Amino acid sequence: MSEALWRDALSRMLARVDQTGRSVAQGFPHFADPATGAWTTSPVGDWTGGFWNAMCWLAARSTGETRYREWAERWTERLRPRVHSDTVFRGFLFYYGAVTGALLLNSALAREVALAGARGLAASYNPRAEALPLGSEAEEASDVGTGEANVDTVQGGALLLWAFRATGDPMLREIAVKHALRHIELCARADGSICQSASFDPETGKMLRRYTHKGIHDDSTWARAQAWGLIGYTHMYQWEREPRFLEVACGAADWWLAHAPRDRVAFWDFDDPAIPRTSRDTSATAIVTASLLKLAELAPSEAKRREYRQAAEETAAALVRDYLTPAGILTHGCYNKKIGLAPQHELIWGSYYLFESLHVLAGRLDPTEI
Q1: Is 334 left (phi over 0), alpha (psi -120 to 50) or beta?
Q2: Please, are residues 361 and 91 in contact by the beta-carbon 8 Å criterion?
Q3: For residues 49 and 68, what is the distance between their CA atoms, to the nearest angstrom?
């Protein structure tokens, strides 16, 4: 692929970061109308706020411009009230929102906030189930509480493993590893596909059922569940070289590549009978792009590393050429098709993962650096 393609796309997305940072005064960017660029914000970050912070941290690192660091620190400070939120999605908030700043810019503020978030998340661990449950305040879930699990939450293990390295507290590592291993049983299917969610008995830990919050039906493969499983286990192996994490990550990647459309951009659910006349999900596709770039460094064989790198480049090129506007807006993110929420919009996490991927492709970031 042409380096000029990556540089131009980065320039467009950086302009979008500038526009967002100057226009959003309150809350966190959540999703946006692709026609106008106007953001719908979340007052305290919902589960998505950390991705905006991470875009600012990345922009600060790659450009050296002080305004991006100022924005990153401003929004990272706003995450403090979420430390004790009863939601497992603190994994997203504090890994991307704060750990990224500690890793890329050695920010003392980011490190402090990230450690507070990690300790708050670890406090919700259920040792009988060996899992961090969704929690009573889990965002946008049809079932919440102490007996619910979600593949998205594997990302929380990466937050705890970073905190283990930062503090030396072995309990953080133990929780992270057990949580991720348990979710292999809860959410990973034998063929490499991923189920979004599961219920378990909080007293015994016994799994009671598998289901989906946002997929078309319980046995389908919702595109973003597949993507979250892929990035979650890739990150876990990045931080903790447990072979089962790499096995699940590569299995999820291979399943995705075998089932994705020829143009590389996934439909919102792989089992929607209306395909191809249904919604795409560029956000799931962007998550996978970032994951494949990491696996191109981590995979066990040279052949697999080449395969994943080529697939990542082709997928990123498809997103840039067909879905990234001149204003740097990544269109056709499908937030929640089932309830009609932002089904063809710019989604802050989709924008983040494409932004990260472009930094890697342009040679400005090591894929396993964050």
Answers
A1: beta
A2: no
A3: 16
70: amino acid identity, one letter:
E
Per-residue pLDDT tens over the stretch 11-41? 999 999 999 999 998 999 999 999 999 999 9
**Mean pLDDT over each residue of the chain, to the nearest integer:** 97
What does DSSP assign to residue 27?
S
Residue 34 in tokens: 């692709």
CA distances (Å), origin 143, targets 86, 154, 260: 14, 18, 29
How many Cβ atoms sit within 10 Å of the Cβ of residue 185? 14
C-alpha 91/C-alpha 79 separation (Å) is: 12
Contact 44, 363 (CB under 8 A): no
Residues contacting residue 258 through CB under 8 Å, at least 6 positions apart: none
**3 state SS for 71-99:** HHHHHHHCCHHHCCCCCCCHHHHHHHHHH
Cis ω before 326 (30° cut-off from 0): no
Q: HEC profile for 302-361?
A: HHHHHHHHHHHHHHHHHHHHHHECCCCCECCECCEHHHCECCCEEEHHHHHHHHHHHHHH
pLDDT digits (tens, 9 = 90+) for 111-122: 999 999 999 999
Residue with tokens 């050429």: 321
- Which class for 32: exposed (0-12), middle (13-18), buried (19 or more C-beta within 10 A)? buried
User: Tens of pLDDT along 281-339?
Assistant: 999 999 999 999 999 999 999 999 999 999 999 999 999 999 999 999 999 999 999 99
Task: Kindly compute the dihedral angle of the four CA atoms of residues 103, 14, 72, 357, in this order, to the nearest 10 degrees.
Answer: -30
**Global pTM?**
0.98
pLDDT digits (tens, 9 = 90+) for 51-91: 999 999 999 999 999 999 999 999 999 999 999 999 999 99
